[in-house]
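writing this on my phone so excuse typos. first protein, seq and then structure
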Amino acid sequence: MKTIRLVLAVLALLPSAIRADEIEDAINSALKLYKEGKLNEANTGLQTAVSLLNEKSGASLSSAL
């Protein structure tokens, strides 16, 4: 649980331009947690990945406008 909180804290400090690698890292981390049977933490990791994707999509849309 401490790891998830640390990851979320670090993500909050990142600029709005999110690199795809960070999204991939969040997905891979969630997959690892899932394989370890840590379902709540895996769910949080996937939600983080979705948030990063949404943020990236929003940044792309705003730059297009």
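second protein below, same order as before
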Amino acid sequence: MTLKEFEKKIHGIINDREKELEELNNKKLENENKINEVKGVINKAKVDNNFKKHTEAKKKLGELENEQEFYTTRMEILKAPIPHEEYFNYLDTLDEILGEEIDKVFEEFKPVLEQVENILTKESDIWVRAMVLGDLIKKELLNDSILSNGHSTSYRSIHNQKSYLAVEECYYKHNS
């Protein structure tokens, strides 16, 4: 299962739950109206001294109240948190999918990583060669003089290792 499929599944569960809650709430409201109507019939039957109508309405009221209780209980069940075991199963599944998806992306990244490593190695080699050459110039051409006209004679490049800094910046950008 892909992350997209699992995401769709979880959203489906949530949407189905919300849809059922809405349907139950509508049924509950309709049922409340029916209960009020039946209570009116009961009161009228009492006034009209109609025992048969009274008995039928009382029976109907009991059914409607049972139905109302059912809707209320079902809504409470739907609103209740899922069992911990089910929750942790979802998280385990998510973690498994995440590992698989990251592995797929990393397989795509491997060739790019090799290119980046080659570029960083080239840049580092150039940098090291320049530093060695700077030290050689100092040692052989200046005879290890420490200061010249107030300036240090050690070679320090004014240039940065741009590729390395770009990779580092990318790393920090995606890990903060």
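The chain has four helices and two strands. thats all i got for now
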